[in-house]
Amino acid sequence: MLAKFLERCIAENNPKFPQNERQRQRWAKDIDLMLRIDRIDADDIAAAIEWSQNDNFWRSNILSGKKLREKYQKYTIRR
What pLDDT digit, counting tens, does each position of 14-52 carry? Predict the structure, then answer.
């Protein structure tokens, strides 16, 4: 669900952003790692997705589940 939410938020900023099931599955794996390994709460991930896609700088930098996980700590501090 979080992968779909990320995709929907990105698509709102860029309607031409490519969307497909394979991409969502990769993103879901990255988000699963955030939940299980990084122990980040799902609500915190959802809030971070929403914030990043409303921020002028981060919306162009967080365009995948991999980047969401990789940059989470950095933009959480800024948020």
Answer: 999 988 999 999 999 999 999 999 999 999 999 999 999
| Tokens encoding 20 | 């497909």
Whole-structure pTM value: 0.88
d(CA 42, CA 70): 16
Helix-then-strand count for the chain, H and E:
4, 0
The full 3-state SS of 17-46, as one line of letters, equals CCCCHHHHHHHHHHHHHHHHCCCCCHHHHH
Torsion angle of C-alpha atoms 36, 27, 55, 78, degrees rounded to 10: 30
User: Which tokens sit at 70?
Assistant: 């990789």
